[in-house]
Amino acid sequence: MYRLGRWLSRLTSATTLLGGFAIALMMLHITADVVLRYLFSAPLPGTITYVSNYYMIIATFVPLAYAEKLDAHVTVEVVAERLPRRLQRHLAHWLLPVCSVVLSFMTVKTWTEAVGKYQMNASLVEGGTTIITWPGYFMLPLGLGLMVLVLLYKFVVYLTGARCGLTVSDEERAIAREVHADKPASPGDRHE
After folding, report:
1. Can you tell me the distance from the alpha carbon of 189 to that of 77, in angstroms, rounded to the nearest whole number?
2. What contacts 24+ positions apart, CB below 8 Å, involve 13-16?
3. Mapping DSSP to helix (H, G, I), strand (E, B) and coil, where does residue 66 land?
4. What is the pLDDT at residue 183?
């Protein structure tokens, strides 16, 4: 069980690097477009299409599992915060499979949509340039599916009491503390 967690941890870290790489490429692409547009009157064709169909989707959806690993998703606790801390902890764990089911449906739906876009060779035309867009559709089921795996892993660890292999570095732990300064104990507090 621990080894599976370590593998998931490495995979979520790799996908997060992919998201960060997409952000860096987006910044370079937009900067180059602005410089070329205003200095040479020759903008890069398809900038808006690349930003909205590739960079932003990768940066948003691919690192979802990493955010779950750190328990860094935004939460709104209206009723749960009034419950005893122990009950809050158990409730948080029992919501993991519920979230997994919902996200599994979303994964299947986005996968079906991605395959359909691939089969029709989806593309957009911007400024006379045809840009294929179907690869971006596969980023959604990738990010959602990986998040389902992390949620299910965390739930199994909770049920069995096994040692959690989702490793969190000291730097990541500090970031998670900042995000949840007022949040009670959560499923991620058992990370090693």
Report:
1. 18
2. 13/66, 15/62, 15/63, 15/65, 15/66, 15/142, 15/143, 15/146, 16/62, 16/63, 16/66
3. helix
4. 54
- The SS3 call for residue 75 is coil
Using alpha carbons only, give the angle 19, 92, 75 rounded to the nearest 5 degrees: 50
**Over the stretch 153-184, which tens digit does the pLDDT of each residue have?**
999 999 998 888 887 766 766 766 676 665 55
The percent helix, strand, coil of the chain (3-state, each to 5) is 70, 5, 25
Residues 148, 100: contact at Cβ < 8 Å? yes
Nearest CA to 7 out of 161, 164, 148, 165 is that of 165
d(C-alpha 92, C-alpha 34), whole Å: 46
Distance between CA atoms of residues 51 and 43, nearest Å: 14
Sequence-distant (6+) residues with CB within 8 A of 129 are 45, 46
Q: Give me the pLDDT at residue 181, please.
A: 64
φ, ψ dihedrals at 110, nearest 5°:
-70, -30
Cα of first residue to Cα of last residue in the chain, in angstroms, is 14
Q: Cβ-count burial of 5 within 10 angstroms (0-12 exposed, 13-18 middle, 19+ buried)?
A: buried
- Contact between residue 165 and residue 4 where contact means Cβ atoms under 8 Å apart: yes
Report which of 154, 5, 3, 142 is spatially closest to residue 71, judged by C-alpha positions. 154
